[in-house]
Automatic annotation (TrEMBL), chains A, B:
Its main location: membrane. It comes from Lates japonicus. Zn(2+) binds at H38, E41, H132. It is a peripheral membrane protein. This is N-acyl-aromatic-L-amino acid amidohydrolase. Residues 234-315 form the AstE/AspA barrel-sandwich hybrid domain. Belongs to the AspA/AstE family. Aspartoacylase subfamily. Its cofactor is Zn(2+). CDD domains: M14_ASPA.
Length: 328, 328
């Protein structure tokens, strides 16, 4: 079931779902759209630049802030220059003192937290959406930490409007204080993760998916702020279970196999015991063992260094109530 | 028509093609297979490592040298560290003195030229095959400089054996002294260019294409050296005509459009005047103008920095004679 953080339900209707009719929330007026948090994930870079060029700062009730999160990494067309910016937004790292030896990305995280947060405060932007790409065949995914009903409704809305590509939700079950990525800075937040797209390459089809996701989010915010009631219901979400590393040569620790062709490009297709997952360079097949789970981030480029060939998830059904804006 | 470099036909049969029955060549015994010339093109890296692990140094009449061309770039998973190694093999650069300020890759080019060449000399390996990947949807391509009949026959052989993916030939019409890439160091040489594969990602399907190409090359060399006659005939090849840059913002020089979805992934599909080639971030279509040509390297990651969105080629038919090994 969808968790909701304390303080977000402002009208006292929180309680067991079957007792709730409609939950009301304050308006979601201040919307931050960030790109280039990873400098070689191009959709967000060009999306943010285009919105800045067109001076899109206000759409109806929604004020929009666009941010190029990691300009040095964008210029170098690298994921990051010194450390992964999108692992810098835990409470501990955001409260650590800045010294001469602080990596560029951690200093940048403090700047972003000052501009868009501070994380966990009343001053934080109402909604933060961070734009990412993956080399995995994941279509359009929304990634959340603890689910909240605003972001779940946005997900449901986008899913109902986009039919050209699968739209899915991924939940990382991590406490707010430990939440490490940029979207955790907003009062509400999620990442768009869109692929497949090679790092450093810009594909029009993927760019257009990201643009459609952003446009639909703004559309939803407008309708929500203007008083529309959004009906409750159910959605499916994938909850992170564990990561799987590549088979490695015991002598050199180098990878000894590639993702099996039957798994490659089949993100979110249920993996059963005995299904092939790796093909070694000498031609042997490695099979999945253990419980049935859903693979995602299959052959994501950036995860080689994190020793992850793919993640596995459980699928669950999330039930959530109708919501509407809180009247003054 | 296929050009053949002076000195390669050793039995005096060179001449107008209709006068030739069968051209003979010395055995092609010494075969060098190079990978990691670009450090983030993984097929060659893992192919070379696997052959070294399996100690594949001799297959029948063929002695095999495997080389990881740019180990620093491989370790960093970058195309190169200081300058593009695969632009360092011109006669001028290979004869330039090495100084303290010489980039790593140029020093490495001198080492490779000493190991596998020297370029243009009798000591050079008989055949050099360099393994590359592209983010473009190019299938399996063999890239040659001036075509010679050994490499054309290898191309024809591979094309006749691989049916799962298109196999094509690309000719760069560049004089030997100006030939800048590693394969120019061998007496005969070509690059395998295989895609689509993101930089830094290893796909089993692409790895297997590269492996099949290498295995078939070795098979051909064995048959050639053992006295088989290979029948002449015709093949199609694509000859580089020109490069096309992205539309750019006049103020910032940043790219203002992506490859159009109708061109993306359609390498080698004839481009006619009026066909869409770019889609701007604000939604406008840019169309192809001028003569009908064949696009290739469409949206190749590494060519963003070279200001190339795609190359264009002419298609031609190459006629070549039967060949056999020269008897002592």
């Amino acid at each position: 079931m969808a968790a909701i953080e304390e303080g977000k339900v402002s009208d006292g209707l929180a309680g067991p779902l079957d007792q709730m009719e409609c939950v009301s929330f304050p308006p979601v007026n201040r919307f931050a759209i960030c790109g280039g948090t990873h400098g070689n994930e191009t959709s967000g870079v060009y999306m943010v630049r285009e919105m800045q060029k067109q001076k899109i700062e206000k759409v109806g009730s929604v004020s929009i802030t666009t941010v190029l999160s990691n300009p040095r990494a964008v210029d170098a067309c690298k994921r990051y220059t010194e450390t992964d910016l999108n692992r810098c937004f835990t409470d501990a790292l955001l409260s650590a003192p800045i010294t001469d030896s602080t990596p560029y990305e951690l200093r940048r995280a403090h700047e972003l937290n000052a501009q868009l947060g501070p994380k966990g405060s009343e001053e934080a932007v109402d909604l933060l959406c961070d734009l990412h790409n993956t080399t995995a065949n994941m279509g359009l995914c929304l990634i959340f930490y603890s689910l909240d009903w605003i972001t779940l409704h946005i997900y449901k809305y986008i899913q109902s409007k986009i039919t050209s590509v699968p739209v899915r939700a991924i939940q990382l079950d991590i406490a707010p204080s430990e939440a490490y990525s940029l979207e955790a800075v907003g009062k509400h937040g999620f990442a768009f993760e869109v692929g497949p797209q090679p790092n450093g390459v810009l594909r029009a089809d993927i760019f257009n998916m990201v643009k459609e996701g952003v446009d639909l989010t703004i559309e939803w915010l407008q309708q929500f702020n203007s008083g529309s009631t959004f009906e409750g219901g159910e959605v499916e979400a994938f909850t992170f279970a564990k990561s799987v590393d590549y088979p490695r040569d015991p002598a050199t620790s180098e990878i000894a196999a590639a993702i099996h062709p039957q798994l490659q490009d089949n993100d979110f297709k249920l993996l059963r015991p005995g299904d092939p997952i790796f093909l070694s360079f000498s031609g042997e097949t490695v099979k999945h063992e253990g419980e049935e789970l859903y693979p995602f981030f299959v052959n994501e480029c950036a995860y080689y260094e994190k020793k992850t060939a793919f993640h596995l998830a459980r699928k669950s059904t999330l039930t959530f109530p109708s919501i509407r804006v809180k009247k003054d």
